[in-house]
Amino acid sequence: SHQQTWLGKKVLITAGPTFEDLDPVRFIGNRSSGQMGFAIAAAAAQKGAEVTLIAGPVNLDTPTGVTRINVRSAMQMFSQVQAHYASVDIMIGAAAVADYRLAQPSSHKIKKQPNQDELTLTLIKNPDIIAWVAQQVDKPYVVGFAAETQQLADYARQKRLQKGLDMICANQVGDGQGFEVDENALLVMTATDEVALPKQAKYSLAVALLAQLRKQLDITKG
Ligand code: PMT
């Protein structure tokens, strides 16, 4: 049955935002709630997969049967992914990873200076976690997400190729879509297929995505 096709499959999922600390009380974050990645984790575990969920700072309960690892920053997420990618069949990057972090986070609270009207923060690039996984010789099947505010299909298609991903799930964000909200829609793209999954609750969308993924895995394996 459909259920059994996920038994024994190992899946690694990233979810939520990353927080990049400026000092002990401030950070740069983003609006990801973690719901999309947690929904995929819940649905995959429900179907019998062995799921490890690397979660950024979110307010969500751990889905039943899922092994959860909490992280805060992109660098912490990267090292957890590095520790786990080689033992899974599939990696799904639903996290909204910060592209940059502070070059020099301050160990003390940054003080407002009376005569300083501008403050310049220097940021440096974070590693691209999913692109790194896609480059490894022992890589799993790699699924990325693309959050775009415009030209969804074109940008996502480019992103899949640039990052060397097997599959990319494109979602339109901004204007009450994608981040934070309960519903989402995805354009699922591989080298050979493009399937539109209509707007629906993130859990049922996750179930539909897993069905597409299952199909691709069967094709890939021949
Ligand atoms: O968490 P929710 O509120 O439910 O919202 C869900 C979501 C909109 C956050 C999710 O569906 C989504 O689109 N996640 C990816 C958001 C994103 O950061 O996209 P991106 O285009 O910046 O990144 C593309 C891909 O590269 C993603 O798989 C991302 O996880 C990965 N990436 C990006 C940067 C980086 N340094 N490392 C990465 O692995």
From TrEMBL:
Domain DNA/pantothenate metabolism flavoprotein C-terminal residues, every copy: 7-215
Species of origin: Thiomicrospira aerophila AL3
Parent-record interval covered: 184 to 405 of 405
Coiled coil (UniProt feature): none
Comment on bound cofactor: Binds 1 FMN per subunit.
Role: Catalyzes two sequential steps in the biosynthesis of coenzyme A. In the first step cysteine is conjugated to 4'-phosphopantothenate to form 4-phosphopantothenoylcysteine. In the second step the latter compound is decarboxylated to form 4'-phosphopantotheine.
GO cellular component: phosphopantothenoylcysteine decarboxylase complex
Pathway: Cofactor biosynthesis; coenzyme A biosynthesis; CoA from (R)-pantothenate: step 2/5; Cofactor biosynthesis; coenzyme A biosynthesis; CoA from (R)-pantothenate: step 3/5
Region (Phosphopantothenate--cysteine ligase): 11-222
Residues that bind CTP: 99, 109, 127-130, 145, 159, 163
UniProt entry tagged with the keyword Magnesium: yes
Protein name (Swiss-Prot/TrEMBL): Coenzyme A biosynthesis bifunctional protein CoaBC
EC number: 4.1.1.36, 6.3.2.5
UniProtKB keywords: Decarboxylase, Flavoprotein, FMN, Ligase, Lyase, Magnesium, Metal-binding, Multifunctional enzyme
Cofactor needs: FMN; Mg(2+)
Catalytic reactions of this protein: N-[(R)-4-phosphopantothenoyl]-L-cysteine + H(+) = (R)-4'-phosphopantetheine + CO2; (R)-4'-phosphopantothenate + L-cysteine + CTP = N-[(R)-4-phosphopantothenoyl]-L-cysteine + CMP + diphosphate + H(+)
A GO MF label: phosphopantothenate--cysteine ligase activity
Similarity comment text for this entry: In the N-terminal section; belongs to the HFCD (homo-oligomeric flavin containing Cys decarboxylase) superfamily. In the C-terminal section; belongs to the PPC synthetase family.
First and last residue of the signal peptide: none
